[in-house]
Structures are given as structure tokens and as C-alpha cells.
Write a structure and sequence with these properties.
Elements: H1 8-14, E1 27-28, H2 31-39, E2 48-52, H3 58-65, E3 69-74, H4 80-89, E4 94-98, H5 106-110, E5 114-118, H6 125-133, E6 142-150, H7 151-158, H8 168-174, E7 177-185, E8 190-191, E9 198-205, H9 214-226, H10 232-235, H11 242-249, H12 262-275
Parallel strand pairs: 2-3, 2-5, 3-4, 5-6
Antiparallel strand pairs: 1-8, 6-9, 7-9
């Protein structure tokens, strides 16, 4: 039986915590909403979960109540006492790492398959997401990603080809994984309210196409969408062999990046991987 927890607002007042703009923090207090987010990946009883940027521990509470074994990475020293209270309330379920998630090897840290659930600080969210999606080893050590983003970023992750939001993030998220927008979160749910709406994205690994280097796909999409208003022949001219690969595959070099299907980017990366 866990100890009853004081309201999160009381904890924040007691420790003098205010959301840091520099750290991209916005706190969520709505326990029903937090429970909904924690439920997105399914039953967490006994499962290993990585949480980045727990802050005072709003989502952490929901994860612990769901029976998860949580490893939380927090670089804001001010939040550590509040998280220590949660460790006491849920014995053996919470491990807190004081540090920068961008500088840690998450697979090594966890040492077993794990789900990622985070209300990511806005200033590191995309960098962490691209890192989790990268690497040649697939399936990855993570079993799912359930992440809070600005709604605009979330829409880019789940976007279909030829849509306004379609771009590099969509290709990287969908070429060997499934991505869906799980929950929309109004700005008023946060303290302080951010200027933009937010959304929860849920990603699960899928089959990886054979013969494709993830690094090559990253290079292709970076070049193609780096100058998205230009034709492919212009945006890819700095990538050795890319124009020849377009010709070999029968992809019209006058097309723009946002018109190419994910399968076409995969084919292009595969062709370039063969040439190396």
C-alpha cells in the first residue's frame, strides 16, 4: 500500500518550484489527464519505463500508480527533493538520475526493454525523438514512445506525404515505425500555459526495410527537406550519387521533397547504400 500523496500544487509551493523557461518547462496538474497519458501504451504493471524531464513528478505519479518501474532523468536540481518524496511513497519503483538526457546512453541505463513516456521539455524534445528513432540496430531497446510535443511538431511526426506538415520528422518516424496522434492537450492544462497547443504522440517499432542504412536515410531526408521549396535535383546535388539514384529509380528530379512517398525515400536511401 503506497502512502497518500499531497496535491502536486502543494508540493510545488512547498519546494518553491516555478517552471523554468530556460529548461522549457510547463507543469501539468490535471491528474485525470496524466492518468490518460500513462494509459496510452497499455498496461504498465511491472514494466520498465524511462521518463525524461519529470519536473515535480506529475506524470511520474501516474506511471507509478500504474505499477511501472520508472527511471526518471531530471537535470533541474530544484525538482529532486519532490521526486525523492515519490521514491519514498513507491518503494522500489522509482530511480531518479540527475543529469542531461542528451548525454546519457538510455539503452545502457535501462539494461532491458523499456517504454518511454515523457512530457518532454520543448527545447530538447525533437533532438531526443530523432535520436530514439535513429541507429542501425532495429528493433530498438524501447518498445514504444509516448511523448508530449507542441501540436505543430506532433502533426509533422504523423503527417502523410503531400500534406503541409509532411517533412523529415514524418519520414523518420514512419519508415520503420507506426506513429499516431493519441491525445490533444489544450494549452490551458499547463502551468504556466504555453503559447501553443500540445499533443501526445505514440510510436511503436515496425519492420525495418532490408538493405537500408538508417544513417543514409537521415542524410537523404536532411538534404531533401533542408531546401524543401526546391526541386530534388537542386536539394540533393550535394549528396554524392543522389541524382544518379533518382534516375535509376525513375523518380522525376523536378519533384519537390514533400511530394515523395516514404517508400520512395526508403528506395532512394537503399540505392545510395548499395553504391557505398
Amino acid at each position: 500500500m503506497t502512502k497518500p500523496l499531497p496535491p502536486l500544487r502543494d508540493v510545488i509551493v512547498r519546494y518553491g518550484l516555478s517552471a523554468s523557461k530556460a529548461l522549457g518547462q510547463n507543469f501539468l496538474f490535471d491528474e485525470q489527464l496524466l492518468a490518460r497519458i500513462a494509459a496510452v501504451p497499455g498496461d504498465l504493471e511491472g514494466k520498465a519505463v524511462l521518463e525524461v524531464g519529470p519536473g515535480p513528478g506529475g506524470l511520474t505519479r501516474a506511471l507509478l500508480r500504474g505499477g511501472a518501474r520508472v527511471t526518471a532523468i531530471e537535470m533541474d536540481q530544484r525538482c529532486l527533493p519532490a521526486l525523492a518524496e515519490l521514491s519514498d511513497a513507491f518503494p522500489g519503483q522509482l530511480r531518479v538520475i540527475a543529469g542531461d538526457a542528451l548525454k546519457l546512453d538510455h539503452s545502457e541505463l535501462m539494461g532491458e526493454p523499456f517504454a518511454v513516456l515523457s512530457n518532454l521539455p520543448y527545447n530538447v524534445g525533437t533532438a531526443l525523438f530523432v535520436r530514439w528513432l535513429g541507429g542501425e540496430i532495429w528493433p530498438p531497446a524501447w518498445t514504444s514512445l509516448t511523448l508530449m510535443f507542441q501540436q505543430e511538431v506532433a502533426q509533422r511526426i504523423v503527417a502523410a506525404p503531400a500534406s503541409d506538415a509532411y517533412g523529415r520528422l514524418g519520414v523518420l518516424a514512419q519508415w520503420r515505425a507506426t506513429a499516431k496522434l493519441a491525445i490533444k492537450v489544450h494549452r490551458s492544462a499547463f502551468t504556466p500555459p504555453p503559447k501553443v497547443m500540445s499533443a501526445i504522440v505514440h510510436v511503436e517499432p515496425a519492420a525495418m526495410p532490408e538493405g537500408v542504412s538508417a544513417k543514409m536515410l537521415e542524410r537523404v531526408t536532411e538534404a531533401a527537406f533542408g531546401q524543401r521549396r526546391k526541386m530534388m535535383r537542386q536539394s540533393l546535388k550535394g549528396l554524392p550519387g543522389a541524382l544518379e539514384a533518382l534516375d535509376t529509380l525513375g523518380i522525376d528530379a523536378t519533384r519537390r521533397a514533400e511530394t515523395l512517398a516514404i517508400a520512395e525515400f526508403v528506395a532512394l536511401a537503399k540505392q545510395l547504400s548499395l553504391q557505398r
